[in-house]
């Protein structure tokens, strides 16, 4: 299958949906909505929503509810980038080739835009007009997956561990724990949420969760490698920031080639988790390959 | 009725429940959970949870689900205080007589503790083990109330307007819009969420929403008055900060006595909205009086 075509098509669907539900910049408070849209439509690849959609499609043709559910993941992801970039956190000036949110709107607005995006994710998932035709028991389950993946034992917890590890001599196990939480838990939530929308059986949900864990790890290793090997143009931000910040990453432990090999192993293992799925899981398989091979 | 006894009893219930569901400080990431608990158990009055409980009781004896639902409001309120106190926002060093979160744990951890608390609120409301025996349609509705009350068109939106109004010559209508969103929308959500837990009829929900709007306004006016008249001991923070920041408040427009009179009018109107409720709404009536008369 042509994964680039698939990615383009799904990204457009998600973008169109997000554009239709996120308040436009004419609605008060206008600056807040400008700040939200500035980062939300900054050229994100929509990997998490697309993983959710592809997981849902692996089970069956998903109901319309997949779009709000998948899009809520991008709201969470975007808020996390805005807050991560703040001076008190990573203090980044550029993201995806554009000035970071706080560089344009100021720190206070960036904090609030992040808070609003995080809240909007739950607004979207609990909006009964948007999430139509879904069993409300499943809808509650989805919201819980999102909260757990994004929260203190998920993404936020990982961000805390990541900050605490800067300039420290951490071991590989600690690095894995950081990544598992910071990136892995939201990717896992994405895949599981897609599966839940499509009423996956417990066995299917298990297989897809395993897939998500391996893909999440591959994703993070690939990110670490790109931070070393990517150019400013490819990354849309300065390369090699991890080394500059004294951050230990997969290349620190395995070298660039070793880390690449590890990412490929994760990809293979992810794909092997899909054995019991038919061709409908081909986008998920291609996504696993794409995530390791991408250049940005 | 003895409103102080009622407040004490309910506050203890909410505190006990929060203590049982919020990760303890031994669980990793330990510093995150310390920072969360530092602000969550800093002596808050639990007004929002208690409003939710009292609204639920006004309709009928509420199911057990009222505790997680009511407590989620305190998680949202606490996150908003942590983020509001940040140097980029109000830059406050003290809150409830204690150093603010970022003064103890640093800015990065305070931002993340706020993010985690916000997410945890939705975790709590969507946790099916905690929210037992509630129709899942209502559970989704509750989550949506919380998201709308806390989000870009609710509390966060109000905070944006508040920041934008500093040192500006705003009129009374603008002040009202700020308050309606910054404080009013979450109080409204609290009362409505309580009513929804108790399966209120649409007419009851309407009456209670009206009550909440008046109580929210009374609450904010009383807060503005306290900022002028309260002592450092009563407030647990420096008094008169609004004037120092060039913030226009109700006393700016009406004087202290005028503002007090206005708060009392709101209280009376709030109580009149409960005409169709019997003695079960007495705590709500007493709460409306308490909110205007409180000294801290």
Description:
The first copy, chain A, has helices at residues 3-21, 30-40, 47-59, 66-85, 101-105, 107-125, 136-150, 155-165, 172-197, 202-229, 232-235, 241-244, 250-272, 282-293; strands spanning 94-95, 98-99. By secondary structure, chain A is mainly alpha-helical. Chain A has one domain (3-293): Farnesyl Diphosphate Synthase, CATH 1.10.600. A two-stranded antiparallel ribbon of chain A has the order 1-2. In chain A, strand 1 (94-95) and strand 2 (98-99) form a beta hairpin. Chain A is globular and about 50 Å long. The interface between A and B is large, with 51 and 52 residues.
Set out the fold topology.
The structure is a homodimer of 296-residue chains.
Chain A: H1 3-21, H2 30-40, H3 47-59, H4 66-85, E1 94-95, E2 98-99, H5 101-105, H6 107-125, H7 136-150, H8 155-165, H9 172-197, H10 202-229, H11 232-235, H12 241-244, H13 250-272, H14 282-293
Helix pairs in contact in A: 1-3, 1-4, 2-6, 3-4, 3-9, 3-14, 4-6, 4-9, 7-9, 8-9, 9-10, 10-13, 10-14, 13-14
What tags apply to this protein structure?
homodimer, 296 residues, mainly alpha, Farnesyl Diphosphate Synthase
CA-CA gap between termini of chain A: 21 Å
Name of the CATH first level of chain A: Mainly Alpha
Q: Report the principal-axis shape of chain A.
A: globular
Strand order of the largest sheet of chain A: 1-2
At CATH level 3, the topology of chain A is Farnesyl Diphosphate Synthase
Question: What's the SSE pattern of chain A?
Answer: HHHHEEHHHHHHHHHH
Number of domains of chain A: 1
Task: Give the tally of β-strands of chain A.
Answer: 2
